[in-house]
Structure formats: structure tokens, C-alpha cells
Amino acid sequence: MEEIVALRMCFRDGQLLVTDEAPLDDILSRVMYVVTSLWRFLPFAGSRWINVGTASRTFIGALLCGLADFVEVIVADPTQSTFAINGFRRLSMKGKVFVCVAGLPSFPTDTVLRGLMRDNRVLLVHADLKVQALGSAM
Predict the structure, then answer these.
(1) In this structure, are residues 64 and 39 in contact, taking their beta carbons and an 8 Å threshold?
(2) Contact, 114 vs 50, CB < 8 A?
(3) In angstroms, how far apart are the furthest CA atoms of the chain?
(4) Do residues 133 and 108 make contact, with C-beta atoms less than 8 angstroms apart?
């Protein structure tokens, strides 16, 4: 997270931008680290309610750093395949709202769901789940 703030990185008007104040030594590896960290999408399958928060937060971070502009650059280039990004283009505003509503406040519920996956005896572990959920919200 500190690298994102330090670089003030975003993708706009077909370019990946960083602040002029960033030192040029090792800038490429720093930018690659941020991009691969932010744009590491998780499959929304299997135990989907466990990872909806994480997947949504990853998507929100990518949107805030210019993923939509990046997709448009790819789509505008006729030599590029759009096979992997067509889903992004079909995402409606309602879908984007769901991602924000599900992703931002989901730390406590993600924690409880992970705890229930480990031990589903709710009556026996409810006190521990409550402590874990409150700890993740802080």
C-alpha cells in the first residue's frame, strides 16, 4: 500500500502515470510490483462467499488505479485479443455497486465465514468468532 501512495500511480488517457517526484532508480520493478499486487484477480468460485470481500477489494483497487482506462486501450487496439476482458466490459453499474457494497465492509464477515469453515459448531465457537470479527474490523 505504501508503494501505491509513494508512486501516486494511475492509468489515464492510455498511459501509466507515476509522480515526477519518484526516484528513477528501480522504478520499473516498483511499478510492476504495484500492478501485479493490485491486479491479481481471484476466481469467484468454490467457497465464493469466503472470497467475495477479497475479490471485490482487489477489483476496487484496480478500478481506482485505472483498470477501466487500461481495458479501453486494449479494446481500441485491433491486434489485441479481448477474450479475457470481455467480462469486465459487460459489468453493469449494479455489478460495480455490488462489488463496493460487498468488498469494503466485508472484513468482519469474511473472518466469521473463515472461522465457520474451520469449525462449524457455531454454539461452541461463537465467542471466538465474535472476537475475531471485531478484531478484523478494527
Answers:
(1) no
(2) yes
(3) 59
(4) yes
Nearby residues of 73 by Cβ (< 8 Å), 6 or more positions away: 14
User: In Å, how far from its chain's centre is CA 67?
Assistant: 11
pLDDT for res 79: 92
H or E stretch at 10: strand 10-12
| Closest listed residue to residue 55, CA positions, set 91, 100, 108, 24 | 100
Question: What single DSSP character describes residue 15?
Answer: E
Whether the pTM exceeds 0.90: the reply is no
Inform me whether the pLDDT recorded for 132 exceeds 80: no
**3-state class of 129 per DSSP?**
helix
Q: What is the pairing mode between strands 15-17 and 10-12?
A: antiparallel
Contact 60, 99 (CB under 8 A): yes
pLDDT at 46 over 60: no
State how far the Cα of 107 lies from the Cα of 110, in Å rounded to an integer.
Answer: 5
Average pLDDT score over residue span 19-33: 83
The span from the CA of 131 to the CA of 46, in Å, is: 26
